[in-house]
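Lay summary. Proteins are chains of building blocks that fold into shapes, and those shapes determine what they do. In this project we predict the shape from the chain. Here is one chain we studied, written as its sequence of building blocks.
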Amino acid sequence: MLKTRRKIVACLLASLVLISIFFALRHVKQLEIQNRHAKYYEDVLRQQTNASGRPIAKVLSADRDKPVSNVIVGMTLIGPDGGDGGFFSFVTDETGIAHSDWPLTPGRYQYHLMPDPKSRFNRTYWRRGQPYVVISKDGTTSMPSLLLNVKSGG
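And here is the predicted shape, written in a compact code that computers can read:
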């Protein structure tokens, strides 16, 4: 009887150790992802800040409808077959407007918004029913207002 109890306790302890290891590894992986996002954010911000070309889109906070600066606007061209036709990224200025210094292929672009990882905002992705960024043949854009989601409690 005592041996059985010891085996049960040993199994429970082993299970707790394995569960602890699993959650520790998961936490480490999440930190690695956050660090990669922060490095990507800093790299793009350094390269794209102060672009002065044509306006592409305006980013507003979803809760206050106010412009948000230093947001990376990633855009993916939606090809005629619905597939990915290329990816571009731009950074919003102090008025929340992202500018492009180079000509873009005409078409529809889905977007994702990447704010400063330390800000009160969440990454925000295009969803069905939201506007595309549309680039016309003359290079002008539909200039949509894109809403940036706020972190819960933010």
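What the prediction tells us: Residues 31 and 64 are 30 Å apart (CA to CA).
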